[in-house]
Amino acid sequence: TVFTFSNLRNSLFSNCIVRNSLLDQAVLKNTVFMDTTFEDVFFTGSDLKDIEFQNVKGLKPVYFFKATNLEYSSLDKNFIEEAKKVTEEDLITYIKTESKLSLQRQSDILKTIEELSTDN
Question: Is the pTM of this model over 0.90?
Fold first, then answer.
């Protein structure tokens, strides 16, 4: 599933598994993930203002490369610090060696990474 550049507001994802999805460069304001399991779900470059993660499993700091407003989310401060340490190289290595994203999704997320690196 691809939500690239989506604007999800006042949304609830509950009792679900989200796999191999790109929520990159999206706005997720007042969005709640409740009792959700994540597997290769990338929030790369997304605005996470007021996003809530309640009783979730599978989140990894690498999923949040260059995400903004993490401090306004419900994520644990230690998790946020780890997410902020993720480098472009870390993310690319993860995508190429550990991720189960399809080749098309890998290409899409690599394009996002390139776009974000040229925005600096």
Answer: yes
Q: Which two tokens stand for residue 93?
A: 């290595």
Extended strands (E) in the chain: 7-9, 12-22, 27-29, 32-42, 52-54
pLDDT at position 119, please?
A: 66
Chain Cα centroid distance, residue 74: 14
Enumerate residues 6+ apart whose C-beta is below 8 A from 58: 37, 38, 39, 41
What is residue 44's predicted lDDT score, i.e. its pLDDT?
96
Consecutive 10-residue averages of pLDDT for the chain (120 residues) = 82 95 92 96 94 96 96 95 97 96 94 85
Distance between CA atoms of residues 114 and 18, nearest Å: 24
Phi, psi of 108 (to 5 degrees): -65, -45
Angle at 31 between CA 25 and CA 32, to 5 degrees: 130
Distance CA 47, CA 71 (A): 11
CB 118 within 8 A of CB 10: no
